[in-house]
Design brief:
Length: 383
């Protein structure tokens, strides 16, 4: 992927080709990037903040390059409020990309960098000064307005890049791994500022996330790509509690996966005999059928370990038993690593406030959960 220097949009967007009905702010239609990204469709609406998360770190950055016009898709189309972007150069698109790959202008001070796109677009001096002053305040750089770029710290450089982008009043603001290499305190401050700006200004944001935690802070939908396929795009609650695919459950929800066979399905609840022993229940994916092999996904914080006592079970419902391997105190929770009868291992996370007597390596525990806390999917042939 090219890392050549780029400049903010310097020309007004072309006159829109009007649509007969209102549509999304950004429509991605059957977009495909060679062999790296399968064709997919995605609508992003006005004032919405969407994070992109992928097992291939380069893939969301490539997609941002396509939206901004620095790379061409091998197939598909993009439109912003009905304006087709196909063939438009970056400077003619109502899109601005903010990325560590894009340099600031070292010969200009902070205010000069923000004013640059306004000057190129032919704005009057009075408007330039007013807009620059406003943006400096928005990104918290008033005190360093006359400072040279070389004197700024990493966090201030990101604030300046955001300010320069806002000066172009883009319809879409792309944030490509802007927190890479920053310390945690700086990242937290920048996130708080961006959330405030997004809500106050009604920004439409697309954010390339580095990991799950980085995808959560915006609070909007998260588009998850796995092996070049858009698997699901939804809010965090839906991704965690109602994933559409076991890949979402394991990659985003960090769920444990257990193989088994479906004994029965009643009112969307599957009764499953696990390969590691024990009969449990879970929500059945709509594609799941009785007597089929399946993969059960259960998040570590949804499993209850019963220590020192066992839950009453019916004769045809043997319990799921495990042996504690390791116990780790991790701040506000205890993390347990357990081994099942077939030798596979799973993780449990429990709050420190809960009584955990007898939680020691070597102890045997019975595992239980509510059916609504687990999801069972058909087992794929390649599993």
């Amino acid at each position: 992927m090219s890392a050549s220097p780029r400049h903010p949009s310097t020309r007004d967007a072309p006159s829109p080709r009007l649509s007969s009905r209102p549509g999304p702010r950004l429509r991605i239609e059957s977009c495909k990037l060679g062999t790296r990204l399968d064709a997919f469709c995605l609508d992003i609406h006005k004032n919405e903040a969407v994070s992109l998360l992928s097992d291939d770190p380069a893939l969301p950055s490539m997609l941002c390059d396509v939206i901004a016009g620095f790379r061409s898709a091998s197939y598909g189309s993009l439109a912003v409020e009905g304006i087709m972007l196909d063939g438009l150069p970056p400077e003619s698109r109502p899109v601005v990309l903010v990325s560590p790959r894009d340099p600031l202008f070292p010969h200009l001070d902070v205010a000069g960098n923000i004013a640059f796109p306004l000057r190129v677009r032919g704005k009057g001096q009075q408007e330039i000064e007013a807009s620059t002053t406003r943006i400096l305040a928005l990104v918290g750089l008033e005190r360093v307005a006359r400072t040279r770029i070389s004197a700024l710290d990493a966090g201030q450089r990101i604030r300046l890049a955001l300010g320069r982008a806002l000066a172009g009043t883009p319809s879409i603001l792309l944030l490509d791994r802007i927190f890479a290499g920053l310390d945690l305190r700086t990242v937290r401050r920048l996130r708080q500022m961006i959330v405030t700006l997004q809500r106050a200004l009604g920004l439409t944001l697309i954010h390339v996330a580095q990991d799950r935690d980085d995808a959560l802070w915006l609070g909007g939908r998260i588009a998850i790509f796995d092996s070049g396929t858009l698997v699901q795009c939804a809010d965090a609650g839906t991704l965690l509690d109602r994933p559409e695919d076991e890949r979402i459950a394991s990659l985003f929800g960090e769920a444990n996966t257990l193989a088994g066979r479906v004994l029965s399905i009643d009112d969307d609840i599957a009764r499953i005999h696990l390969a590691c022993g024990g009969v449990v229940e879970a929500i059945a994916d709509e594609r799941l059928e009785a007597d089929a092999l399946c993969v059960l996904c259960i998040r570590p914080d949804r499993i209850a370990p019963l220590i020192g006592s066992t839950m009453a079970m019916e004769e045809d419902t043997p319990p799921l038993m495990a042996t504690i391997q390791t116990v780790l105190h991790a701040g506000d929770q205890i993390r347990l690593r357990l081994r099942l009868a077939d030798g596979s291992e799973i993780e449990i996370r429990r709050p420190l406030l809960q009584a955990m007597r007898g939680v020691t390596p070597g102890a045997t525990v019975q595992l239980a959960w509510q059916a609504s806390q687990a999801v069972a999917f058909p087992m794929k042939d390649d599993l």
